[in-house]
Every structure is written in structure tokens, then in C-alpha cells.
Structure prediction request, 735 residues.
Amino acid sequence: MRPGRSDGDAEFAYDALPSLPEAEDGPGEWDAPQPLLSNEESTEWDAIPNLDDFFRRIYKYYEEKGFQVILVSRVLNLLALGFTVAFSAVLLLFVRWDALRASCILDDICDISEAVINRHPLAGGLTLWKALCLTYLAIFGAYWLYNLVHLAVDLREAANIRHFMRNRLGLSEHQLRCVSWPEVARRIVEAQKTTRLCIVRDLTEADVVARIMRKENYLIGLLNRGVLALHVPVPGLRKRLMLTKTLEWNLHWCVLDAMLDDKSFTIRESFVADVAGLQRRFRRMAVVNLVLAPFLLAFLLIYFFMRNAERLYHQPSAAGARRWSPLAAWRLREFNELPHYTAHRLNASHKAAERYIAQFPSAALNHAARFVAFVAGSFAALLLFAALVDDVLLERHLFGRTIVWWGAVLGVVLAVSRAFIVEAGMACEPELALLEVVAHTHWLPRHWRGRAHTREVQGQFEQLFQYKALMFVEELASVVLTPFVLYVSLPKCVPAILAFVRDFTLHVDGVGDICSLAAFDLQRHGNAKYGAPVQAPKAARSRQGKMEKSLLSFAATYPTWEPDAAAKQLLATLAAPGSAGAPGPHFPYTSHVPEARSARLGPHLFLGPSRSGAPAAPYAAAAVSSLARLAARAGGGGSALYGSIFASADLALGASALELAASPAVNAEERVATGQLLLQSFYEERERQLRLHGAHHVADPPRRDPLRDPPASELAFVMRDPASAGGSDATADWI
Prediction:
């Protein structure tokens, strides 16, 4: 499909973010043994029919760290699934739950198995309950058999990939445990020179990743443009976005699998032109989901019980733990960012996100939790004292239950209540706490800037960083609600979905049709406010500069990748302080960040005057100091600690400042001063780290091509007036 222009229908501007299941591997094409890589000039023509599947299998092989790990994990997962199905059969058919309170059990005169186990569950005829249980077991038994067959296919394909990795890429399973993915991608590109995996053209790292993430990039683009409406259509209620695995599977089946021709790797013209066809597909899947809902709900409940019951009993406070929701994972994921990079960034931001949430303690809940903990602790102490007097008392009954049972209940109450107690003494710094999160997530909506202390921003943040228990409840609810979303909400979005696929598709020879945003097509989608050489119409741009930030991420992750001319111009512009390429950073923190705090956050911060002689703004100094501290922390750990493309200090600074550059600065003088402060702070902090740890621990950085791989510490510090970018509106929409 050839590129087109987007008309940006505003009526479909939903902020919904679904996710995707892992794509299934197809059959292996690398069955014949291949010779080792050599320095010979000869070329072997080993073209592979489906490079998408082949590269996807290579990435899975890398991510799971070799054939041995794949074998063990697949077999154990199959056994776990079989045990879950068998255990479900016991719980649903073979246990007489009403017999648990039988008199003989309470009087301890009979064996529990004799009273509770029903050895002939189908005797007495087929009731409705038994029919439903048998249907449930048949469905998941068939699913287990499917996984058994798929296990054999996976192992055969993994063996083929192992042969390719050893003989063509020179990577053993032991080496695979410590090699980085960019190195694997580089070796694939080098292997193309002697082994023609693709006949049409030479491969690049961007081609490899684009094939792996062909469908995912479309989904990221759909979500970034706000095309999908993933809310339950209930009139009068606030639209709460819902993203679960159930919805991911359905979106994958209805849209992403259906739109692509797996042989030509192009968008089907019939798919783009058939609005009614996609609407019918959504509604048919709604009916299928509604039929399967009771069985899937039962399976999820049993699986959750088996996996978490023991942990919740011994660690009840785990129910109050938070993590990034699937909605957040897809909202924060960048174009051409592989899953393990996203996971590492989110893991690195977890503590910072918890610190931001802790900025808003509920005083009433805190007092209530302390009271409950005090009462429960008093009773627990009494039971403990009774046990110390005479341990026989533990077997005695109190209000129909043993003392041991009451002690267990009180322990759970104590653990849960203490999880909601917030210790005094925490400084209230919501702006800087959110800034620390942004250093990892690279995501700061326009209406959050300078408003991190408000209840609105806190509530929206908590929807992304949710309680684990709440996410499980949402997953259960989605089993029932997904049919309604598929039948009512998503069909309304079909014209916008097809328009996006049509207008945001680019054909690349040798690769096929890909999302033009993921191709970093700056001519069509560039945003000059994020450094692009072209200012595209708003309807064609990505929101919040996601494409430009993704380009920055990709260039930092794959140092041997050669970008096109427009991308080189963007990187060169961002790397040149004082150039007229892009706006400088603006830190929208005013009275919320006092000047004195900058000294504590950055003791080595150089607070110099601007060119006009005026001192730098306190909020800029504090933000600069905070970024420098974050960068130094990331730089000390390196990529092994964070696993992020922004793990080094200079990249953390570049990415964070580029994110914060989403509002026009007050004036050009302040931008110059702010950039100087940030760079000075970074260099001084790096020198301090060298003095602390010794220069011999820090390797010299490799020489770089300033056009292809500019120093990332300067990427976002270009100082110019927004009006000089070709647009005169300094208060334009930066989203």
C-alpha cells in the first residue's frame, strides 16, 4: 500500500491503549545444515520465504536465552497447564463441598477423603452443572492438546534457530546469555553479506526490527493517535479505559492478523475498503467471547487461586503492591522498541513511581489503618500470651474456631492494615517525584506539566500504576465486558481504524508495508517542535513527539544503524547547541520547587548566570539538578542495571530533556542558561563519579559519527526561539 495523508477525524480521538499477545511462530524454514561464516567473497542464496516469522523466532530465542531454556520452560508450562486442568476437574466434580462441615469430620471420627471425595461424580445422571463442568474440561483439554502439538513445533523451530545462531552468527548458548540484542541484530546484518536472507536488498537493523514488530507498530500507532475506544458503553457513566489480555487477543485476531497478507507482507486492499466487514468481525467475536466467558472466568479464578493463595496468606500486603498496567505498558512503549526494552524501562521506574504515589497519602485512611492494626495487634498479643501459658490452648475452640485459626486471621488483618500506614517524615515533592518517573518513561502529557501536585494528575497516574489486586479484578471483569466492547464500542471506530491503516502505511522494498510512523518518515509526520526538519499537519503527526523520541531511542540503541538524510538532519540539529533546529528544554516547575532544594538534589550543580547576567530561574535549576542526579545514578549502573537504551548518563539527560521540551520556554536567554546548567552539572557529576570509583573502571567512549550518532547529552539542548522554526505561534499545541 502506498502512503497517504490522514484527515484526523476528531470524533474518534479516543485515548485507549490495548495490548497484544505474543505472536505465534510459524513452521521453520531453516532445516538444512549451513556452513560456518567465513571471510570468503562468495555469497550463498538462502532466501527465507517468511522473514517476519524467522526474525521473530530469532528474537524469542535470544529473549529466552537458548534452546535448553526453551525446552525446560515449554515442558514445565505444559505440565502446569495440564495440572491446572486436572486440578479443576477435582475441584468441580470430585469434591463434595457441602460435606466439609459434616459431623464426622468435626468430631474427628472419619477420614476427610472418605467424606469429601466423590469417586463417581457422573453417577445419578447428567445435570446442568455436570454438563457445564464437562464442557469446561473439554475446552481446556483441547487447548492442552493444542499446546502439546505446538510444543513439538516450537522445539523443531528452536533447533533450527540454534543452528543458525551457531553457524551463521557465531553465537553459542553460553554467549547468548550475555550478548546484547543490538549485537545480535548487527550480526544478522553482517550475515546478509554472505548469506542472502533477503534477495531484494541488503538488510539493516531497522529492517530486522520492523519485521519483528510489523503488527505491534501499527497497534502502537493506533493507540498513540487515539483511534480505539476501549470503554464499556454505559450511558451516564465516566468512560474508563479497559485494556486486558482478552481485548489484546481480540484486537490481534480482528485487525492485525486480518489486515496483512502473510505472503506479500502488504496491507490487503479488501480489508481497508470493507468497513462493514470489520464491523461484522468485531460483532462475531463478541458472540464467541460471550459464549466462552463462563468457562474462561472459571479457569482464571482457579488459576489465580492456585498461583497466589499461598502468597497472599503469608504476605497479605502483596495485595497492596502496585505495578504498571498493560494499558501503561502500551502507552509508554515507543515505535520499534522491543518488549524487553520496554519492560526494563518500566522496571527501572517502579521505585520512582511508588515515591510519586507516596506523595499523596490519605490521612483518614492512615489513621483508620493504625487503629485497625492496634486492635488486631492487641488480640494477637493476647493469643500469643495464651499460647505461651499452655500450648494446648491453641487447639481449643473460641466462637466455633480454633485459636490457631483466629491467630491466622489476625495476622492477615495486621499485614493488610500495616500496608496502608504511611510513616511520617516524607518530603512533599510531587513535581520532582514525577520528574524522576519521566526520566525512565519518557512520557509527560501536556496537561501534567507543572500540575503534578493536583488530584487530577494523581488520579490519571494511578490508573496507569495500579494495585495488582485491582488489575486482576479488571481482568476478570473484562471477560464479561469484552463482548460489549466488541459489539458496541469498537464497531464505531472502524472507519477511523481503516483510515489510519490506509494513511499511515509506507511500502519499503524488501520489507513490505509498515507503519510510516515506525519508519521514522519525518517528511510526512515530522514535528518541528521536537527537532524534525519538517512541520507536518497536526493530523499527520504523532502525539507528544513519540516518533521523534522513538527515532532518538533507536539511534541510541543501534549504534551501527545508518539513518536516512532527514533523520541525520534531526540528530545533527539536536546535537548542535545554538542552532536553529529545534526548541530547547523548558522546565515547567515554578513555586513548587524552591531554590534551596537544588543544593540538596545536586551538590555539584553549577548555578551560573545567563548571558544577560540574571541568575537562572530556581525551577530550572532544581529540574536540572534532579535530571543530573538521575543521569549519574543511571550512568553508574549502565545497561546491565537498567537494560534501557537510556541507561547511560548522557542518554538519560537527552531523553528526559527532550520530553520536557514540550512547552515553549520563557525566553531564549533562559534556554541558554538552562542548557549550560544541565551540561555543566552532568560533567561535574561524571568527574565526581570518576574520582570516587577510579578512572580505570570507566571505559573510554567509542568515537562516533556526529551526524549518525551525536552525543546524546546535547541532544535536547538546542537554543532558539520557537517562532524561528517556521511557525510563529509560541503557544502551539505540543501534543
In short: The two ends are 28 Å apart (CA to CA). The first strand starts at residue 260 and ends at 261. The chain has 27 helices and eight strands. Residues 520-735 form one domain.
